[in-house]
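Quick one from the shared queue. A colleague (R.T.) flagged Adenylate cyclase as missing a structural entry in our internal table.

Convert sequence to structure tokens.
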Amino acid sequence: MEIEQRLGLYQVFLKLYEHHRSLLDEILQLEKTNNKTFSSVTTRCVTGVIQGKQVYLVTNLVEGKTQSLYQPQGIWTIGRDRLLAVSIPDRRLSRRHAVIQYIHNQGFYLIDLESTNGSFLNGEAVHGRLRLKDGDRIRLGSLAFSFFLCNDSQILDETPADVLAQLEASTITPRVADVEQLSLPVSSAEAQIATPEQIKPTQQKEETFNFLQEPSPIEKPALESSMSQLSPAQQSDILDRFFSRQSHKVSEHN
């Protein structure tokens, strides 16, 4: 079972090498650095807001900041060009990749501008103009984000008195980062008398991509059969990418 899984993963990487080599480079680079956690990943989104006669987008695609983007003509162009309404420095985006357009009394639409890597709505390629709905998934090249629609608002009832009383009585709990900033530095004398309970061992990062290890003798014939379809230069390149980590580990142990 383990051999089948590793061979399957190998085939995936082989396809990436043949058709999306730059994407494979980024995957390997992410695995190498391994300095980001899931909590640091930002969910990208665009929200189309219709508020009376005013229409605008709220998005965090630009510079990672959530902001409102008002465009008098209701046309928001997305691409690498710095002069665009939604300018994103992504090399898989075309200079002018796609447009989100609002048409009065109809809604928001996604239009592909004959981009190199295409535009996709819920997994389907965009040809012409497609209307956007709340919760749609959009992908422009490799840039993926969700689209939300806000065209309704309501005035809520006043907050109950007991909730207001709880808010007044509650205390604000400071965040860990704020506490660390306010903490005083420990003197050298205090650091020397630290108890064992205060000293925590460094936790090693779990290794990922175990399938990058050198294949076993049982796996090698199947791998060599797949590799024989490539040129010697391509075979060498793939082997260097897949097994360089293993040789690096051996050198570290020595």
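The helical segments are 2-19, 21-33, 161-169, 176-182, 188-192, 220-227, 232-253.
Residues 202-209 have pLDDT under 50 and may be disordered.
Added to the table.
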